[in-house]
Amino acid sequence: xxxxxxxxxxxxxxxxxxxxxxxxxxxxxxxxxxxxxxxxxxxxxxxxxxxxxxxxxxxxxxxxxxxxxxxxxxxxxxxxxxxxxxxxxxxxxxxxxxxxxxxxxxxxxxxxxxxxxxxxxxxxxxxxxxxxxxxxxxxxxxxxxxxxxxxxxxxxxxxxxxxxxxxxxxxxxxxxxxxxxxxxxxxxxxxxxxxxxxxxxxxxxxxxxxxxxxxxxxxxxxxxxxxxxxxxxxxxxxxxxxxxxxxxxxxxxxxxxxxxxxxxxxxxxxxxxxxxxxxxxxxxxxxxxxxxxxxxxxxxxxxxxxxxxxxxxxxxxxxxxxxxxxxxxxxxxxxxxxxxxxxxxxxxxxxxxx
Length: 354
Known about the structure:
This protein is α+β, with helices and mostly antiparallel strands. It has three domains: 85 residues, conserved putative lor/sdh protein from methanococcus maripaludis s2 fold; 90 residues, Elongation Factor Tu (Ef-tu), domain 3, CATH 2.40.30; 118 residues, Helix hairpin bin (Helix Hairpins), CATH 1.10.287.470.
């Protein structure tokens, strides 16, 4: 009978290897647990926020507008006899621009002169005691009615400029009949000509409701336009609109700009800068700010009892390398200014001041 020869190494060595393998695996799990139990502490630098004094700067963008603009025609239909201006013509207040058909004017003038003559004669008779007060009053009423009618028809026949400016549109030609119908050329208005006053000019800006207590009439404004690089125009806040839009939370303000050389023209894009005086608030360095991925929202971290606390913030104006803080932090907070990129809310930190 043949028996398999017994070799101790065939059984002992595999058993030892198995024991060592499982022993090492157990040791690795314990090591991982121990590593997990050791909480990571991130070294950071912090600064203590203190109130600071700075100049409040309000910035806006807008479009140059004429100070006054009118698109006008006659108050009743009629034939256009003469137009005395063209686009680009300069006019002064009271200049005759358009002469309408004057047939009605001639008739009204005759009636007015007759009523005037009757009134003067009746006035003489009243002083002589030849007529009653009632007869005098009746003739006077007829005279005043004829005078008013004549003045109205005269104004409707001879169209004069209401202010000094530049003719910006001519929508009819001589000999055409003015029907008072809206015109596409006149932007939907029933007009024969249009005039703009560009000296001064103005800008309407839309301001946030938080600026409502700050922006005041009379404040100086600096205006720049891209086509005049390096040149600044000086204006003033001329009007603050009294209501705030409930949807946009904004209000309008008007900036008046002297434009003696008429370099500013309606339609130009403009930037407005207003110094609103000295204020006290918190300023934080821009390099301490982080941006929420995929958005423009800014946030930062503070150190509170060696713990990182994420803070969502609202910023105001930029002041060189710092930004005005509107909300989110308070004076006395310790703002993380170095090491914040590695932080998450609630992490342990070891802070020092630079």
